[in-house]
Structure to design on (237 residues):
């Protein structure tokens, strides 16, 4: 018994919307005149041996896949109750996986404490424990999922556009999530023109806690990415 079998048979958390009639296969005739069966998950099968008596034997069209099923000739109903396991996915399962990924990415984008790893392990777990564990073969890549979470977070919490000039900076209303610390105290302590001609502006970010640490420290040691700053900024040297 494979891990997929175990998960499938022990899973009791299938959603009602995932339940559909899986008891019938669709039998089609290809342009070459041969018969093919398609099951409810979109897996395709060739006839496997002669049709004898009242049933047809089918094998998966993917080379080396062990997916097999038997259907009744009169009704196209499956013999047996469950669909076979495959070592690959189908477009139907792919779109189910995408939908599940979308739901979980959306959920994590709005969580205050989460990260890429937590989001991905939830997607993986949900796909494997669903009524269609083969959806796991259609899970998106790590890079794609990270980017999707980043985009979704940005949608919920849009950042101001990058400024090109100091005038842009001074015209920007900076959201309070960027000017305050997580506990709500002031973090942006200066955002102002620094000369009368209003050619240059300066921003200073420091928390009360950080200021207090510096106030009490007898020695300050400094480091910084002095040569790396987006226009129009440069960092204090
Ligand atoms: Zn297969």
């Amino acid at each position: 018994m494979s891990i997929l079998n175990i998960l499938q048979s022990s899973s009791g958390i299938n959603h009602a919307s995932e339940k559909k009639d899986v008891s019938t296969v669709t039998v089609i005739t290809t342009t070459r005149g041969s018969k093919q069966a398609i099951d409810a998950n979109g897996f395709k099968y060739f006839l496997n041996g002669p049709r004898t008596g009242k049933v047809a034997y089918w094998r998966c069209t993917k080379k080396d896949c062990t997916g097999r099923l038997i259907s009744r000739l009169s009704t196209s109903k499956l013999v047996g109750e469950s669909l076979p396991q495959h070592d690959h996915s189908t477009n139907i399962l792919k779109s189910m996986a995408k939908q599940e990924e979308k739901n979980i990415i959306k959920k994590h984008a709005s969580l205050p404490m989460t990260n890429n790893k937590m989001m991905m392990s939830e997607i993986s777990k949900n796909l494997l424990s669903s009524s269609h564990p083969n959806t796991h073969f259609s899970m998106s890549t790590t890079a794609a999922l990270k980017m999707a979470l980043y985009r979704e977070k940005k949608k919920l919490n849009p950042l101001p556009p990058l400024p090109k000039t100091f005038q842009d900076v001074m015209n920007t209303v900076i959201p309070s999530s960027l000017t305050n610390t997580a506990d709500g105290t002031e973090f942006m302590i200066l955002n102002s023109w620094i000369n009368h001609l209003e050619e240059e502006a300066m921003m200073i970010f420091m928390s009360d806690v950080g200021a207090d640490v510096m106030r009490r420290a007898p020695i300050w040691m400094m480091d910084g990415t002095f040569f790396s700053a987006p226009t129009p900024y440069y960092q204090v040297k």
Remarks:
- The first strand starts at residue 26 and ends at 29.
